[in-house]
Amino acid sequence: MRQLDGAMQATAPTAATVSNMTASRPTAATGGFAASGSFNTTFQQVQADVAAYIARGDSGVRSETQPSSQAMSLQAMALRNRAGGAIEEDGNGVDSALQQQFLASIKPWAEETAGKLGVSPELVAAHAALESGWGKQPLKNGAANANNLFGVKAGGNWQGDVTLASTTEYEHGAMLRKTERFRSYPDTASAFRDYASLLSSNPRYAAALNTGSDARAFASGLAKAGYATDPNYADKLSKVAAQLQRSGGLAGITPTGN
Hints:
Blueprint: H1 15-18, H2 37-56, H3 69-84, E1 88-89, E2 92-93, H4 96-117, H5 121-132, E3 140-141, E4 144-145, E5 161-171, E6 174-184, H6 188-201, H7 215-224, H8 233-246
Antiparallel strand pairs: 1-2, 3-4, 5-6
Helix pairs in contact: 2-3, 4-5, 4-6, 5-8, 7-8
């Protein structure tokens, strides 16, 4: 979604950002967490009951379709889980266990990159999470994972491997689907190091550097530099970063990346 080499031109959100605009990952209708197994079935029924009750309005008449006290309790429990569990990615919830797995897989590289950019590791991790859908929507190089967690495009000066992917660009307020060339990396470490090099070597991104734990400053610096053409990009990145910070960030997470 980026433009990496040379002249500044607006580039587009990758598949990860596009996922924020399309229902690409099934989630509970209320958002914020993903249910599974028997609880998913029960919760879907609860949602249907509650929706029917709301649609009827406060008629003062109890019917067989009005949600039972048990159903309302389940709904309340689900909402509490949502509030206390998963970090939401712009309304498309990802199960908290999957989030923790993703953070553990990138922790060493997020910390290394953060030190080079003068920002907290949580900001780097949040950016990777937003662009890759918490690792669930990786760019592919054929059947292989391109390891491009930051949606970095392959400009004319890129000498490494390239993969083609469909993405969305915003031009004059309109969303356009396009096929673009993206960088492909042999491993996660290479992706993070290239990302660090991109931001630190290009003066365009100076405003995003050395912003510490200030999620808004980091996100705004990237957005204003043209990292993405999505007009809401700074808000989306700030939201993920702030929620990750509130949840404790990378502290206490045992790394699994290699």
